[in-house]
Design goal:
Structural class of chain A: mainly alpha
InterPro entries (chain A): AAA+_ATPase, AAA_16, ArsR-like_HTH, HTH_ArsR_DNA-bd_dom, P-loop_NTPase, TPR-like_helical_dom_sf, TPR_rpt, WH-like_DNA-bd_sf
Radius of gyration of chain B: 24 Å
Strand content of chain B: 5-15%
CATH topology of the largest domain in chain B: Rossmann fold
Oligomer: heterodimer
Organism (chain A): Thiobaca trueperi
Number of strands of chain B: 9
Number of domains of chain B: 3
Radius of gyration of chain A: 45 Å
CATH architecture of the largest domain in chain B: 3-Layer(aba) Sandwich
Largest sheet of chain B: 5 strands, parallel
Distance between the termini of chain A: 122 Å
CATH class of the largest domain in chain B: Alpha Beta
Strand order of the largest sheet of chain A: 2-3-4-1-5
Strand order of the largest sheet of chain B: 2-5-6-1-7
Order of helices and strands of chain B: HEHEHHEEHEHHEHEHHHHHHHHHEEH
Number of helices of chain B: 18
Number of strands of chain A: 8
GO molecular function (chain A): DNA binding; DNA-binding transcription factor activity
Number of helices of chain A: 50
Shape of chain B: globular
Distance between the termini of chain B: 38 Å
Protein name (chain A): Cdc6-like AAA superfamily ATPase
Strand content of chain A: under 5%
CATH topology of one domain in chain A: Rossmann fold
CATH superfamily of the largest domain in chain B: P-loop containing nucleotide triphosphate hydrolases
Keywords (chain A): DNA-binding, Repeat, TPR repeat
Largest sheet of chain A: 5 strands, parallel
Largest interface: A-B, 43 and 42 residues
């Protein structure tokens, strides 16, 4: 370690400038700017006059010392600049005295040029003559060089000079523009600030700001670096060091000088090194602050004195109460005091809190009032912040500790016992001050709880609260490190917090790693292990690793003495995962374990019951499902949220059983349930609306949907559903405008679920299509297709719908492209894929591409038949397209055969038969334009020939033949249908839309 | 060139004043000048330039008079300056020196130790003789004397307070008499100060002073810079301060333009804005551009420390116009400022202003209103347009007024 640098607390000008350079923080840019301006003053006709304003101890002399040092080092200025740095302890009451001080300062710095002898004859002159003569002497000796006058405490100088002296000085500067001034002041006095004053607007004023927390830490690091104390630097960089500096910052208010004092204490770890310079500093500053307070009007003085006794920001109301004044009066005085720089304010909600702007003022007033000369409270507080309780005790019992230190240590221990952990409180206060009201409400309790456990944890939480995740994680990582010296409890908490931060960032693997590390710690409590396992299990679930997930939950369930609540959570979570694996027996067993065997918290029992009920329901055991829901509703004193949930799910189950009255009763019960969460009320309304709709009571359905739409705090997904359902009803009743309005509302609903938007767009597109506005229809379908994260089912529907719309517009190319896209769409539902293939086949038939059509058709049918359950769509359109495609008997026969083979090979004869029958109905629909009997006959003959050898086709063929005969006869003589038996006949009557009555038959 | 609000400017770097200075020299051929200007518009710089770069044949003597608090001090200071000047040309102020000796001055080695001044020291004679000496000596050199006297109102006010109104009146009368006496010999004066001379005269008139001691002088108003020079000044300062400029196209000239415009082309405010802009540009994402200039100006106008010291415009109202007219003046300014939606000043006719004053109960006398408006115009609050309506003279002041008065 190198020798310690000497850092003067009170007179930075006595500190080696190189050392000052080394420790400078915050003001590098300001300093460089001031040097540039002084340089320009020295080398051009521009003369800058600078004024640095800041309370005592804010580093003004430090700044000026460096400025003079840098200018002195600049050899290019040797012949251009002369510097007179006035002794700040002397005063001047006239221009003559000031000029003399300037000359003497020049003499000290440049003894050969500004000799004392030259001054001698002036003492024989009258003051007026001497002033003139001295001015001339200065100007003559300066030659054409610039004179830089450095004045500290400009306020004191101006006070001494008075108005006359100031006017003379200004006139001197104006008449002889060779002078540039660099000055400092503790505040902006009227002599500068008032427009009537001679020096109004004369100075370029810079307000020196207090050190920020980071700058304060940087200053302490710089000092430690200057002293070669790498251990101190490492400590300051550690989480512990950071949290202590953060707490101390609250006491110091960013005052430079306090930090210089503090650095000596930190560097030497000596209470003596803190107390003595601090006491001296306070002694020096007390008169200044006392005088500042004395200047104030009586009411303001009382407010300041009161605030000096408070060690945290105080609400206006409290100040007013304690001073027997009205809030209005105090508010207006505080506003004035804030303008004068005495107090500063912070907002907490609607409340304004005030505190003394300069901590030194508070300290000095405290000293004044503390007549018994006991230990300085602020230093006691410093020790309470800096040392832990055991460190205080160890030092007190150390024989080498001297008397003064003992007094302070004893006071600190006593204060800790009486008032608790100051560091924790300051950390909490400091973060609270940095957070807004919502932030305080959200984070305050966590930071407070952490602060009680460990300052480093509180620091990490504070950074997290401020959105500084990286810093929070860095600190937590440090805490959890092997050599951090932290307790297992603190490390456990740190890893839990890290896991939570990573989880919220979506970094699931990192979150899991944090929990891995936690579970690898030795001697972790059972409760923490169980909690970590449950959380890790949940992470595995999200990561898709259900084996490990189940293993973690099982470990909790088997962990001896694990808390019941955590076992219950593990059982429920494991049950859900079993359910997802379709292992409903195990699932039900896990829920049942929670319900029957554990004394688990009611909420978890309710959750298990509802989950089990749903599983029973899915298994078709609706009675058991209803019993479970009823248990939550009727027997358990479950929280209202779970009752609401159970009611809604029971209502759904009743509905599935067709018991709409009970379903409606359950939904209504939720709607009327006091304090039921809006989410479940909305769900109940939507479900009740749907039930009313099924019962045909559309007015009530619309009323329920409307209620959701207007329900305050209803979740957006329920609003979206309500709007959609209402739109459907409007659409069904032909009120296209209202339907479009509702679908549009869904589309524009902020944060509406994507699926809801897709459904609404498709329905709106369909309505537009029906209204003949194909462009808008296509636009809506396209919107769904391009919607990010739209469910594939809806994207497929949109493609099919768009293809059909293009077809209608005769844009067959686009239509084909869309239909082909469906088959390429990964995850498209089977039904849609089959439909698309059939549509594609129909398209090809219509455009004469028979072979391609057959391939598409075969693909579609085969895909459908191989699925479980099988789906082969509706081939009626294919038959229609084929019927229309040719009248040539030979071609028709040929193609009928190949078409028949495709259906036969795909095991879809039934579908073919149904399609042929339905096609008859379509032919019959327009009796005016019935095909010719020949056409019908070749059509029937072709099918009879193709299917003659297949038994399964006999019945469809017989129906088909009778139907063709019916049509050939004009489609009006039901008597023809009497070739069929009653059941077969009924089928055709249905297809042709005929009345099935004896009269009708007789009419034939 | 660095921004230097309040400091002295290198005369080689003074921008945009050549035409005005030419006009001053032309005027001085005929008569003396009383120069009025809003504070910080740059009049001292103009005076310094007159002093440093006189037209051939002129001998300027510059004095900042705010340091003198009595007529005697003033007269002696003039003697000292004249004497210093003449001694440079190996001449001396013979008559005045003899007179001072007769009052007890002692000459040691050619230097006159001035007599002790007493209450009845005849300062008028000293002043009169020393100017006579100067004029005569310069006539021999074929030169004309020009006194550049800055902060005259400050001195007159000090004299008024220390020695009473009659002495202040006498100083003005004496100066006028000297101008008359030595007019043909070419004596000229440029009188100026940051408080309008009209206020001093008005104050004295209230004490039954009936003369018009300045009616032989030409009233010259120093305007703010023209648009071109204002932009040039802003450009030079932006370069000198190495302000980080936004990379968007033309932002250099746009930024300088914005500085000049928002400063109302006041050199003092241009310096201030550029200095603040430098800091703001360092921390802004893009660097300086017109939007940042606007932001800086807004911050300066709202800054509780009032770095441009604009609150003076409010505070001096009772001092300038008396407490009895304070509400009327505030009413006029509030009425004009409140009507302006942006920086563009709105003009109101005398009739409108009178109606408003009547409605507000602050003023119902047309003549008094006209008097006040004339004074407010002289004090640079207002200006008149071609239709005779009044508006804020400086848009910047109007903007600040709106903010400060919560209009």
């Amino acid at each position: 370690m190198k020798d310690r640098a000497f850092l003067s607390v009170f007179t930075p000008s006595r500190t080696a400038p190189e050392d000052l350079e080394a420790i400078t923080v915050q003001r590098q840019a300001l300093l460089a700017d001031a040097v540039e301006r002084a340089h320009e003053s020295a080398t051009t006709g521009n003369k800058h006059h600078l004024l640095f304003v800041g309370p005592r101890g804010t580093g003004k002399t430090h700044l000026v010392t460096l400025l003079v040092h840098r200018l002195g080092q600049d050899r290019t200025l040797d012949k251009r600049l002369r510097i007179a740095w006035l002794n700040e302890d002397e005063t001047s009451t006239s221009l003559l005295e000031l000029l003399r001080r300037i000359y003497e300062a020049l003499n000290k710095r440049y003894p050969d040029e500004f000799t004392p002898d030259a001054l001698e004859p002036l003492f024989d002159l009258t003051p007026e003559d001497a002033e003139n003569a001295l001015a001339q002497l200065l100007l003559k000796t300066l030659l054409d060089r610039t004179l830089l006058v450095v004045v500290e405490n400009l306020d004191a100088l101006f006070e001494g000079l008075g108005q006359t002296g100031q006017q003379k000085l200004r006139a001197f500067i104006q008449e002889h523009p060779v002078l540039s001034m660099v000055t400092t002041a503790q505040r902006l006095i009227d002599d500068i600030a008032r427009r009537q004053s001679a020096f109004f607007g004369f100075f370029q004023t810079e307000y020196l700001k207090p050190l920020s927390l980071e700058q304060a830490r940087e200053l302490l690091r710089n000092i430690a670096r200057l002293n070669g104390q790498s251990d101190v630097i490492a400590f300051l960089d550690s989480a512990t060091g950071r949290s202590r500096i953060r707490a101390l910052h609250h006491l110091s208010g960013g005052n430079h000088r306090i930090y210089i004092v503090l650095s000596q204490f930190i560097n030497r770890d000596s209470i003596q090194a803190l107390v003595e310079p601090f006491a001296k500093m306070v002694d020096e500053m007390t008169p200044y602050y006392q005088e500042r307070i004395r200047w104030l009007p009586a009411q303001q003085r009382k407010i300041v004195e009161f605030l000096c006794t408070q060690d945290r920001p105080t609400p206006v109301k409290q100040i007013a109460r304690r001073l027997f004044a009205t809030q209005q009066t105090v508010s207006s005085q505080l506003k004035d005091l804030r303008g004068k720089g005495y107090v500063q304010s912070a907002q907490r909600g609607r409340e304004s809190l005030y505190e003394i702007a300069e901590p030194m003022m508070r300290i000095c007033v405290e000293i004044k009032e503390n007549q018994n000369q006991g230990p300085l409270r602020v230093l006691v507080d410093f020790l309470r912040v800096w040392y832990d309780g055991h460190e205080l005790n160890a030092r007190l019992s150390d024989d080498r500790t001297d008397r003064l230190a003992r007094v302070y240590l004893a006071s600190a221990i006593e204060a800790n016992q009486a008032k608790g952990n100051l560091r924790a409180r300051l950390l909490v206060d400091a973060f609270n001050a940095e957070l807004d009201e919502a932030g305080r409400a959200q984070w305050g309790p966590l930071i407070e709880a952490c602060a009680e456990q460990s300052e480093e944890l509180a620091l990490a939480c504070g950074h997290w609260a401020k959105g500084e995740d990286a810093e929070a994680l860095r600190i937590l990582d440090e805490i959890a490190g092997v050599n951090s010296g932290q307790s297992i409890e603190v490390k456990t908490r740190a890893l839990n917090l890290a896991g939570e931060i990573y989880y919220k960032q979506g970094e699931l693997v990192l979150a899991k790693n944090a929990l891995d590390a936690l579970l690898a710690l030795p001697s972790v409590s059972v409760e923490e292990i169980a909690g970590a396992l449950v959380n890790r299990g949940a992470l595995y679930w999200q990561l898709g690793d259900s084996n490990r997930e189940i293993a973690d939950y099982s470990a909790v369930i088997d962990l001896p003495q694990a808390p019941v609540a955590l076992i219950a959570k593990a059982l429920i979570n494991r049950g859900v995962t079993y359910g997802q694996r379709s292992d409903s027996d195990k699932e039900i067993a896990d829920y049942s374990a929670v319900i029957d065997r554990l004394q688990a918290p009611i909420t978890l029992v309710a959750q298990a019951l509802v989950n089990r009920g749903m599983t029973y329901g899915q298994r078709g055991d609706k009675d058991k499902a209803i019993a479970d829901y009823s248990a939550v509703i009727d027997r358990l004193q479950a929280p209202v949220e779970w009752i609401a949930r159970a009611l809604v799910t029971r209502g759904v189950t009743y509905g599935q059983r067709g018991d709409n009255d009970k379903a409606i009763a359950d939904y209504s019960a939720v709607i009327e349930l006091p304090q039921a969460p809006a989410e479940w009320i909305a769900g109940a309304f939507v479900n009740r609306g749907a039930t009313y709709g099924q019962c045909g009571d559309n007015n009530k359905a619309i009323a329920d949907y409307s209620a959701v739409i207007e329900l305050p705090q209803a979740p957006v997904e329920w609003i979206s559903r309500a709007l959609f359902n209402r739109g459907v009803i409007y659409g069904q009743h032909g009120d296209s405008d209202k339907a479009i309005l509702d679908y549009s509302a869904v589309v524009e609903l902020p944060q509406a679920p994507v699926e809801g938007i897709a459904r609404a767009l498709i329905n709106r597109g369909r309505i537009y299509g029906q209204c003949g506005d194909s462009d808008k229809a296509i636009a809506d379908y396209s919107a769904v297709i391009e919607l990010p994260q739209a469910p594939v089912e809806w994207a497929t529907r949109a493609l099919v719908n768009r293809a059909m719309t293009y077809w209608k517009l005769n844009d067959l190319e686009q239509s084909q492209r869309d239909l082909e896209a469906v088959s390429r769409l990964i995850g498209a539902p089977l039904e849609r894929r089959v439909d698309a293939c059939l549509a594609l086949a129909m398209l090809h038939i219509a455009t004469g591409r028979w072979d391609v059509a057959m391939v598409a058709l075969g693909d579609g049918l085969r895909e459908g038949i191989n699925a479980a359950p099988a789906y082969q769509g509706d081939s009626t359109n294919i038959i229609s397209a084929f019927f229309d495609s040719t009248l040539q008997p030979a071609i028709r026969r040929e193609r009928t055969r190949s078409l028949f083979e495709v259906y036969r090979d795909a095991d879809a004869i039934t579908q073919l038969g149904e399609a042929l029958t339905r096609h008859l109905g379509r032919l019959h629909a327009d009796t005016e334009k019935l095909p010719s009997p020949d056409n019908l006959e070749t059509w029937a003959a072709a099918w009879e020939e193709a299917g003659k050898d297949i038994d399964a086709f006999r019945l469809p063929l017989r129906l088909f033949r009778t139907g063709i005969d019916f049509l050939k006869a004009g489609g009006t003589d039901p008597g023809i249908l009497l070739d069929l038996n009653q059941e077969e006949r009924r089928l055709l009557e249905q297809v042709f839309g005929l009345e099935s009555s004896p009269e009708a038959l007789r009419a034939g | 060139m660095k921004a230097n609000p309040g400091g002295q400017i290198d005369l080689a770097e003074v921008v945009g004043r050549d035409q005005l200075i030419g006009q001053i020299w032309d005027t001085l051929e005929q008569q003396s000048i009383r120069m009025t200007a809003e504070r910080r518009i740059g009049k001292t710089t103009i005076i310094r330039k007159l002093r440093a770069e006189p037209r051939p044949g002129w001998v300027p003597i510059f004095q900042d008079l705010e340091r003198y608090h009595s007529a005697r001090e003033f007269a002696l200071s003039v003697y000292q300056e004249v004497n210093r000047f003449l001694s440079l040309h190996k001449r001396f102020a013979r008559r005045s020196k003899d007179f001072l000796k007769s009052l007890g001055g002692i000459e040691v080695g050619g230097v006159l130790k001035l007599p002790k001044m007493v209450a009845d020291t005849p300062w008028q004679d000293i002043l009169s003789l020393v100017i006579q000496d100067l004029v005569e000596e310069l006539e021999r050199l074929d030169k004309r004397p020009l006194f550049l006297w800055d902060e005259v109102p400050f001195m007159l006010d000090s004299i008024r307070r220390q020695e009473g109104e009659p002495v202040a009146m006498a100083v003005l009368d004496n100066l006028r008499a000297l101008r008359q006496t030595h007019r043909t010999a070419g004596l000229r004066m440029v009188l100026t100060g940051s408080i309008g001379l009209h206020h001093v005269i008005a104050g004295l008139k209230r004490q039954n002073y009936a003369n018009s001691p300045l009616n032989d002088t030409y009233p010259l108003e120093v305007p703010s810079l023209d648009a071109g020079p204002a932009r040039e000044l802003a450009t030079r300062l932006i370069e000198g301060e190495r302000v980080r400029i936004s990379r968007s196209s033309d932002s250099d000239s746009d930024t300088a333009d914005a500085v000049a415009r928002l400063a109302d082309r006041f050199p003092f405010y241009i310096h201030h804005i550029v200095k603040a802009l430098k800091q703001a540009a360092l921390t802004s994402a893009t660097g300086a551009d017109p939007a940042l200039v606007e932001q800086v100006v807004a911050q300066q106008l709202l800054d509780p420390n009032d770095p441009w010291e604009l609150s003076h415009y409010r505070e001096r109202i009772p001092i300038y116009y008396g407490s009895d007219s304070e509400q009327a003046v505030l009413g006029i300014l509030d009425g004009l400022a409140a009507r302006a939606a942006d920086a563009t000043p709105v003009a109101l006719s005398i009739n409108d202003l009178l109606a408003e004053g009547r409605a507000a109960g602050t003023l119902d006398d047309r003549d008094r209103l006209i008097d006040l408006l004339r004074l407010m115009e002289q004090d640079h609050y207002l200006s008149r347009d071609a239709a005779g309506s009044y508006r804020f003279r400086f848009p910047l002041l109007q903007r600040w007024w709106r903010l400060a008065r919560g209009l």
